């Protein structure tokens, strides 16, 4: 009876190999089953995430979601990477410095003077007009490819002022694991951020595995027109869309066209409340994750002035992440 | 020597089975190799399509494209399905009829009267103001989900005035085969149309296999706000983006964020020239397809007033499809 048994063994190995090759995602998921989220402590939030993903991927179960409905949307600043300082803000300051090096006269002109001197009060007084002037000088009046080349260079050279490492080293490992875990379970992962769509697209694929077509953000108007003898996508100094607060469900609908099922944001400005609560209105299962920056030792502890995000989380029964208690580690560097 | 030989045979079969399971897309492509585009005549256009796809998917070849760069963009009206009449125009007329049935007074009011009487001259005189009034009455001032439910119902009930079949039966089989062929070769297929983004998303997935997040079109402004006691995506009676002519490369950049490699449009209004020529500016290989409606017998023969699309095709060396000569069949019904 040794021969059939050997044959059976060989058959099992072949089938396993076959399965591994045929369904790499499933095989990875299987391998990771011991712990798909190793940087998370074993707290109720982690259990809720795994429970939800298991429910919506269990065929025949009451909450099963066909793969085309598995859309997960993440805020970026403060949700996927640190936001003190906001990286796009640091880019803007750096660009103003470069402009001042080329043309020293702008050191005496507002709102540039205020930026160079870190004079927040004067900037605030300038209001929206000052802000648009800064965006026009640093983000607009150039072809799209030039802008993105400048962002690329900035990300390569710039360092976080306190932590001393490149900004792209400051993504949160627990969230990178969560993105991968969702993708391994058939989710399409998206970013929906108040940050600039063209700014984020420079690094989203390499850093998060999120391709440019799955990034939603604020945008300037663009025109396709002749500049320098050829047609280019020209960045106009006018705001097209502000992807923050009530603008987020609008941006999500424009880009996705179907309601996200898994939505994650963070506490700071209330910017994610609208998209988190919008996702709860869909028929069928949904999951809301809100990250609370309460880890002064490993990151920064900061709160929201009016506490609106945490209040909304309580009312909606959302899952609140305490970075201090729920995460084993905050940064990888 | 019979045993090793049998073993080799078994090994070959196993490897083939393994490959088929491991790479279903490749296996399908292999199976279809005899003829991936059976509804196309064996003319230079078909050969050019297959030659291009083979080149950009040949690993190690000079034109090889990593899968994330394989983006294909198709116009919709006149490229993927018939456009006489424009289906969204037929929807608008039907909606005006329904409004008139509920409120007969609008039969005497312009621009509704002109629509109901098919009085194109009066409509033209009304210009943009009249058009926006019609869009506001039929496409706006309601929640997104209500609008899409109305489109869904229209598509179920309406019939083409001459051909007598539902509009969704009037997609072109050669183009459906092309979409499938590109997807089988790792391309992500997109629509970029002057039509309404939310209109097309109702049928794009079922008809073309193109999910809503890969549809780009014209849009009205939207707001996320309270109506009837809950937050909804509300369609405002104001144009947000016109995805036609120079608006197409802009819409493509906003939604995709990377230059399409394969772009298809059609002759009628010059609406696709900008996105076709924009795709030629990318570094590396690209393919431009322009469909000419020259088949009076099987569809409709129509030309462009100024001939700009065919002229641009000649200058750019684009591939022009003669529906009469290059397609074995035009409709499936």
From TrEMBL, chains A, B:
Organism per entry: Pyxidicoccus parkwayensis
Q: Residue span of the signal peptide, if any?
A: 1-29
Q: Does the keyword Chaperone apply?
A: no
- Identify the InterPro entries for this entry: HAD-like_sf (IPR036412), HAD_sf (IPR023214)
Keywords (alphabetical) are: Signal
Q: What is this protein called?
A: Haloacid dehalogenase-like hydrolase
What SUPFAM superfamilies has UniProt attached to this entry?
Answer: HAD-like
């Amino acid at each position: 009876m040794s021969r059939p048994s050997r044959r059976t063994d060989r058959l099992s190995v072949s089938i396993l190999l076959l399965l591994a090759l045929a369904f790499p995602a499933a095989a990875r998921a299987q391998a990771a089953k011991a712990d798909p989220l190793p940087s998370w402590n074993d707290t109720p939030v982690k259990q809720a995430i795994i429970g939800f993903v298991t429910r919506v991927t269990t065929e025949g179960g009451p909450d099963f979601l066909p793969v085309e409905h598995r859309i997960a949307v993440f805020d970026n600043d403060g949700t996927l990477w640190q936001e003190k300082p906001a990286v796009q803000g640091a880019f803007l300051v750096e660009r103003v410095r470069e402009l001042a090096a080329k043309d020293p006269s702008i050191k005496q002109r507002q709102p540039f003077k205020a930026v160079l001197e870190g004079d927040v009060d004067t900037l605030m007084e300038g209001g929206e007009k000052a802000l648009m002037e800064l965006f026009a000088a640093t983000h607009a009046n150039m072809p799209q490819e030039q802008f993105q080349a400048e962002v690329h260079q900035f990300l390569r050279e710039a360092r976080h002022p306190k932590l001393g490492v490149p900004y792209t080293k400051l993504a949160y490992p627990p969230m990178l694991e969560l993105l991968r875990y969702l993708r391994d379970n058939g989710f399409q992962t998206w970013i929906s951020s108040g940050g600039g769509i063209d700014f984020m697209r420079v690094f989203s694929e390499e850093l998060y595995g999120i391709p440019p077509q799955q990034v939603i953000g604020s945008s300037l108007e663009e025109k396709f027109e002749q500049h320098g003898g050829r047609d280019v996508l020209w960045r106009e100094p006018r705001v097209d869309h502000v992807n923050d607060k009530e603008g987020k469900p609008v941006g999500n609908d424009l880009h996705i066209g179907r309601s996200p099922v898994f939505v994650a944001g963070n506490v700071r400005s209330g910017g994610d409340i609208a998209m988190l609560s919008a996702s709860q209105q869909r028929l069928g299962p949904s999951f809301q994750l809100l990250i609370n920056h309460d880890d002064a030792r490993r990151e920064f502890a900061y709160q929201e002035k009016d506490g609106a995000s945490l209040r909304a989380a309580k009312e909606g029964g959302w899952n609140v992440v305490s970075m201090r208690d729920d995460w084993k580690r905050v940064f990888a560097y």
